[in-house]
Amino acid sequence: MNNKNASGDVTRLLLQWRAGDEAALAALFPIVYDELRALAQRHLRRERGEHTLQRTALVHEAFLRLADQNQVDWQSRAQFFGLASQMMRRILVDHARKSAAAKRGGGARPLDIDAVLGAGDDADGDTGVPREPPHEAGVDFEAIHAALERLEALDARQGKLVELRFFGGLSIQEAAGVIGVSPATAKREWAVARAWLQRELTAEDRA
Fold it and tell me: pLDDT for 1-19, tens place per residue?
């Protein structure tokens, strides 16, 4: 199945699920499973090394939470994976807090937002997809989460853009479609949001 057909199937099943067809949810899971596993892996690569939550568990817990979102006005496949990414982010933060694995100063390195989010235009080729940080980066996931919550309170759209790009791995074009702006606007706001996060996280390191 090519990507266009798969995307269409995901959107169709989301709409059927929204209309009350529970069978559509069961049909959706195997179609999105591989991409959810890849998304979970991106999240776990950004976690500090002492996390204990496994990729399969993260996928299943996120999908269970998504199953409670049947009132969402689904528009696209990208919207679904953006929400899935948000669920995974919150699951990991909750898990880290409960296990005391993300205590402030617990061995995390100082954060370099360019290393985490990517530098320059933040694009690989023409896709506009953020570069993966190195596996050994060991970034303080909870610090990023807290800073992102502050950004969301100041500018919900920029916060959503970072969520979709950094955690969800969406391209500029895909993220722009989800938040309803042009790619040029999304690219400008991505640069502004990245600079704001760099200031916030650098200030935390000095505190």
Answer: 445 556 678 889 998 988 8
The answer to whether 18 and 71 have CB atoms below 8 angstroms apart is: yes
Which residues form the domain of 122? Answer: 103-207
Checking if the pLDDT of 33 tops 60, the result is: yes
* CB proximity list for 157: less than 8 A, separation 6 or greater: 179, 181, 189
Q: Which of 79, 100, 121 is the last residue of a domain?
A: 100
Query: Which residue intervals of 47-182 are DSSP H helices?
Result: 55-66, 77-98, 113-117, 141-154, 156-162, 172-179
The mean pLDDT of the chain is: 76
Find out whether 91 and 39 touch, Cβ atoms under 8 Å.
Answer: no
- Tell me, what CATH number does 36's domain have? 1.10.1740
Domain count, the chain: 2
120-129 tens-digit pLDDT = 444 443 444 4
